[in-house]
Amino acid sequence: MEQILLNGLITGAQYALIALGLTLIFSLMNILNFAHGQMYVLGAFITYYIYGKLGMPFIVAVIASGLTLALIGAIFEKYLFNTVLKRSVREESTMLLAAGTAFFLDSLILIIFGEKQRSVPALVEGVFFGEDYGLDIIIPINRIVIGIIAIVMIVAFILFMQYSKPGRAMRALAQDKTAAQLMGVNLDRYSLIGFALGAMLAGVAGSLLVTITGVNSGIGGGISIQAFTMIMIGGAGVISGAILGGFILGLVEAFGLYYLPGDITYLTIFVGLMIFLTLRPQGLMGKPWG
Amino acid sequence: MKNKQFILKVLIAVFFLLIIIPFVLVYSQRNDYLYGITSVAILALISSGVWLSFYMGRINIGQGAYALFGAYTTAVLVTQTSISFWLALILSGIVAALFSILIGFPILRLKGVYFSMITLTLTEVVKLLAIALVPITNGPRGITNIPLPGELSIFGLTIIPDFATLENPKIGFYYLAVIAMIITFAILYRLVHSRMGILLKSLQQNEELASSFGVNISYLRVISYAISSFFGGIGGAIFINLTQSVYPTTFQVADSINYMLYTFLGGLSYVFGPILGAFVLYFSWDILFVFKEYQLLIYSSIIILLMLFLPNGILSLRFKK
Question: Which of A72, A228, A275, B119 is the most exposed place for a label (fewest CB within 10 A)?
Answer without folding.
Answer: A275
